[in-house]
Amino acid sequence: MNIFLYILTFLNTLGLLYLAYLILKKYRKSDSGNLSTPVTGIQKVGLFRYNPFDDLGSDQSFSLSILDSTNSGVILTSLHHRNFTRIYAKPVKNGEGDSITLSNEEKSAIVKAIKH
Fold it and tell me: What are the TM regions of this chain, as residue ranges (predicted)?
């Protein structure tokens, strides 16, 4: 049973990496030759690690915010438990959840991204 959890966690991590790749691909500048177009793309990144469950001993869960110059982008959250891992992606617009409620940890990741 333990090997199954390791495989499941590995597959969830691969899924998260693929999701991040798709987001990065979307935010890349498509027309690099046009200098009159303002530069957009990923400019701010914030990571907040935490422990959302009482029965685990370390900060294995995280929220990762990926924002552009207007503080818009996406926040990826991974909740890791002994028995499961859940991954969520939420849109961010102007530093706030775009029609969605953000957790305190997700808000902290956004604040970290904006400050750095």
Answer: 6-24
E strands within 1-116?
Answer: 44-50, 61-67, 73-80, 85-93, 96-97
Task: Judge whether 85 and 12 are in contact, CB under 8 Å.
Answer: yes
Whether 25 is in a domain gets the answer: yes
pLDDT tens digits along 47-74: 999 988 877 667 888 999 999 888 988 9
For residue 94, give its domain range: 2-29+39-115
Ranges under pLDDT 70 in the chain: 1, 23-40, 56-57
Q: What's the structural domain count of the chain? A: 1
> What is the DSSP code string of 74-102?
EEEEEEE-SS-EEEEEEEEETTEESSS--
